[in-house]
Input
Amino acid sequence: DVKVTQSSRYLVKRTGEKVFLECVQDMDHENMFWYRQDPGLGLRLIYFSYDVKMKEKGDIPEGYSVSREKKERFSLILESASTNQTSMYLCASSLSTSDGNTEAFFGQGTRLTVV
Amino acid sequence: DQQVKQNSPSLSVQEGRISILNCDYTNSMFDYFLWYKKYPAEGPTFLISISSIKDKNEDGRFTVFLNKSAKHLSLHIVPSQPGDSAVYFCAASADFGNEKLTFGTGTRLTIIP
Output
């Protein structure tokens, strides 16, 4: 079974703090993703990575950065947390395939509250 | 611009009946479609998928139908069970070798016992 583990289930941070969200997968997947889920907006892609040290912006990258130094680990960084970054953050991983048809496996999510 | 749309935010269905969840998309490059189920405070879990070369895929109580000309897909659950109560997300991916998923806004399904 694929396991995607996010380091925290719940986090409360202050405005202006630098926040690190960690994600580890154990299935040697090439692709890793960070999404945020907000009511009425579904899941929106923040950043993704196809390989170690590679990163690409998703649909809403502003205010975020990522790091992928090892294949199994993908970190999301909020450089200076703001209240509008209060959200559920979801990490996912998937295998690269020749036809691009693959499902993503998600972690349990991190509920971040910025006060 | 929402490329994947789920126009019904919520749906209530009697236990034992059929649940039909709908999804529309605008990007004609999408060629792979997935449904995910999400319980509160948990990550989404994969349910079923369909490639654009098919118009139907079935897995137990779950069937996904794809109408490419209408850019529409639907998920049928029959019979519906109380454990099916969750938020369902439709997702799509485009391009050869591109595994990035674009998600809809979700439909909250409630199964009434």
